[in-house]
Amino acid sequence: MPGTRAPITVVGAGIAGLTAALSLAAKGFEVDIVERAANLDEVGAGLQLSPNATRILDALGLTARLQPHWVEPSEIRLVDGRSLRTIAKVPAGAFARTRWHAPYAVIARSALQGALADAVRAHPLCRLHLDTAICDATPASLSAITRRLPGLIVGADGIGSKVRLAVAGHGKARLSGNIAWRLTLPRHAAVSPFDPTVVTAYLGRRAHLVAYPIGASGGVNLVAIGSGMTQADTSEEAFRAAIAQLLSGWHPDIRSALSRAGTLGSWPLIEVEDGAWHDGTRILIGDAAHAMMPFAAQGAAMAIEDAFELADAIGKHGDLTACLDAFVQTRKARVARVRARGAFNRFAYHASGPVRLGRNLVLSLRTPERLAEDFDWLYGHRLPGQKTP
């Protein structure tokens, strides 16, 4: 009931912050969300929501809002970028709903954030403060904004988190040595070899390219990720030159299609090293706590899991510090496993020479259903006590 617990202030109204606000409100907490941006405009075209994320969004009552905006790809493919030969594939679509009891979906970032924001605005226990930058992450400073003293501050303010800087022993943000180039092909320009009904990872030496539909709006979102790359010049000409260099030797159909794609820009990929996530007053979630490389396509999913499981952990009326300790211990183990999977994927995706040939051979010998088993620990994740239907 309102007033029976100390209010909570969430810093950041991205996917992590808005999901945290809804999850905490569902447990009876009054929540203030403080966001420096005047408008909630997510950067980037789209993202993948694996079943471990959509299961949580459904528990928050968001499926009906989101389903008209997402696409459930029929499968996830690994394809050789040079030959366009399919190396392996994992079924999704109806298979995902049956095996993991939740959909695998792709959606525009703006659609997901918009649905979360609408739900927050409609919730009587949530108050959203836009165009409000914080000076520091102290309870007194934040109470001057919200007019109520928070019992806990949730840092969901991303890689450049001010809340993280206030937590002693926090992990350091560092350049990963990888760069992501983002492009889009609108519906009318989505041509071979890109199939808008599936998620495809094209693999090559020192780089890979992921192609997937941009939600229900049509078209294809493209993300090329290169390792050991630097790019100081952000001009359109430099962008095109970098892509051409990155995918040199790839199949001409890919290079031809990319020459017609619209460019969204390039970003050095930053990760946050392991460190302290909380100090009893502040708790970090999402990229603020553990920004990771996108090689497992789990950045958004881990943020959503953090948010939902934090609310579950502190909603049990136990000692707050003990609840936060238990939450961090559980989440760190989960995040470490996802990071390890991402590191393995990076090695496999960017392989060359004999390693590339061995990778292709091993994957070709496994059936799609056997490959799907490798994702049970990830996509089938549930809170303690939750049972598979």
UniProtKB/TrEMBL annotation:
Keywords attached to this entry: FAD, Flavoprotein, Monooxygenase, Oxidoreductase
Cofactor(s), by name: FAD
Gene Ontology MF terms: FAD binding; monooxygenase activity
Domain FAD-binding per the UniProt entry, residue ranges: 7-338
InterPro entries: FAD-bd (IPR002938), FAD-dep_Monooxygenase_BioMet (IPR050493), FAD/NAD-bd_sf (IPR036188)
Key word Flavoprotein present: yes
Key word Flavoprotein present: yes
Entry-linked SUPFAM superfamilies: FAD-linked reductases, C-terminal domain, FAD/NAD(P)-binding domain
Pfam name, any one: FAD_binding_3
PANTHER family hit by this protein: GERANYLGERANYL DIPHOSPHATE REDUCTASE (PTHR13789:SF318), MONOOXYGENASE (PTHR13789)
Name of protein: NAD(P)-binding protein
